[in-house]
Design brief:
Strand content: 15-25%
Helix content: 40-55%
Radius of gyration: 15 Å
Shape: globular
Strand order of the largest sheet: 2-4-5-7-6
Oligomer: single chain
Largest sheet: 5 strands, mixed
Structural class: alpha+beta
Distance between the termini: 46 Å
Number of strands: 7
Length: about 170
């Protein structure tokens, strides 16, 4: 079942990649309850959290944001997938801080020299080469989609300590 899940994820990534070329006509902005969107994505990965014996730190988020449910869900799924792929022990924390969605892991982290390039199409960096399962497409897709949605995207990381990604939502006017 885990292998089938991985295949499904790769297929979703390929389809996401193909759809981003002309996603403007597919974007539907509406007020979204972040808690239900996050919980839906967490549920997809429950088996992997249990199998890897990783703890999930998540408290209910009582915020709504203006976004596209399908595309933001795709991004959260990709980010959780990465966090799980590169975290072998410890935890993954998901929450909202100052209006930004944060996903923080205690994984292997990203080398400082790789960090500026991780969102480039096809770039896998040191960890991607060592892992040999990286496509260099996941973070590129996240970055591309979030730009089209008008959301900010920040990644901070320290090798050997973990990674934190933040998605910022524009203030409503």
């Amino acid at each position: 079942q885990n292998e089938l899940f991985k295949v499904e994820q790769y297929v979703e990534m390929v389809l996401g990649y193909l759809r981003t070329e002309d996603m403007a006509s597919d974007i539907r902005f509406e007020e979204m309850d972040m808690d239900s969107l996050i919980r839906e994505q967490i549920h997809k990965f429950a088996r992997i959290f249990i199998g890897k014996k990783l703890s999930l730190e998540y408290q209910e988020v009582s915020e709504t944001v203006l976004t596209d449910e399908k595309w933001l869900g795709f991004v959260i799924e990709q980010l959780l997938s990465n966090a799980l792929k590169y975290t072998h022990e410890g935890s993954i924390t998901i929450g909202m801080e100052e209006g930004r969605l944060t996903i923080t892991d205690t994984g292997i982290g990203i080398r400082a020299e790789d960090l500026p390039r991780v969102c480039e199409k096809g770039y896998t960096g040191y960890n991607g080469h060592a892992n040999q399962k990286s496509t260099g497409i996941g973070l590129y897709l996240c970055s591309t989609i979030l730009k089209k949605l008008g959301h900010s995207f920040t990644i901070t990381s320290q090798e050997g300590t973990g990674t934190r990604v933040m998605i910022g939502f524009p203030e409503e006017s």
